[in-house]
Each structure stands twice: as structure tokens, then as C-alpha cells.
Specification:
two-stranded antiparallel sheet; 1 helix; elongated; 169 residues; eight-stranded antiparallel beta barrel; mainly beta; Porin
Amino acid sequence: MLAASAGVASAGGQAGSLGVGAEYQLSGLGGASLNYDAGQFHVGGFFGFQDPSGPDNTLLELGARFYYHLHSTAMSDFGLGGNFGLASVPGGAMMNNRATDVFLEPGFQIRVFLASNVALSFSAGLVIGLIDAPNNVAVTGQGVGGNIVDFGGGAVVFNGGAGIHYYFF
């Protein structure tokens, strides 16, 4: 009777599960995160806030993500999709107002489940800076730290980190 009631083991990508944690985009934006896993895809968003001492220097970050799972196993999935990030930062023209950085990041994400409901995520793709964001395009993966590397043609910044989510189902 016990064997008959056992379900099939699946990765934390169980349809209808909700995950909380932290995640950073390739552009370096990130913060507290919420994911909804629909089984065949997952969507999510994040919120980051920092208010160091001093006038008008508050940093606010918001973002969203969508990844369609092309392949899944019991302990991982591989998805195509991307991120959208928005940051309100001090600066802008004449350093007396704020800039709104917008990033669009098409790419892929791999999630590895350490347990049935705990996932680490790693992303790579294309970072496109729009509106006030640095007007450039970069192909990158999530690195560790904020290291600047000069390859002779200018500096390349490796930003980001790994995401982690705990799923409730």
C-alpha cells in the first residue's frame, strides 16, 4: 500500500510550486527573489534596495525572468528565455538627478536541485544595456564577484553570482 501511494520523484520544478530566495542577473542587478514553477517553464522576479548614508543615493532594482524548460531530469533542468532588469540609480545628467538603467538579457539557465525543493541556478547569455544603462552589449555568464579584466581593447566586467531558491509544494 505504501509503494502504491509513492509519487514519481521530480526536480523542484514541480508544477505549481513557489520558490523564494535570491538571484542576480548577468548585468549585476538582483536581490530577494520569487519564482513560480509551472512545470514546463518558470517565471520570477526580484527586488533589491539599498540606502547608504547621504542624500539622494538610494538604489532600487526590479527585475523579471522567464525560462522555458527544453530538457528536465530528476535533479536539473535547462531552459531558454531571459531576464528584464530595471535600476533607479543616483547620477544622470549633471549628477543632480537619477538615471534609470534598463537591461534586456536573452540567454539560458541551468537549475540544479540539491534536494527536491532546493535549486541553484546558473545563467549565461547576452546583456543589452538600454535607455540610461551603459550603451553596450556583452556576452557573459555569471561570474563570481565583480572582477574587471582588461583584454587590451578595454575593460570587461564580470558581474553576478548564483541564484538559490527554496520551493514550497
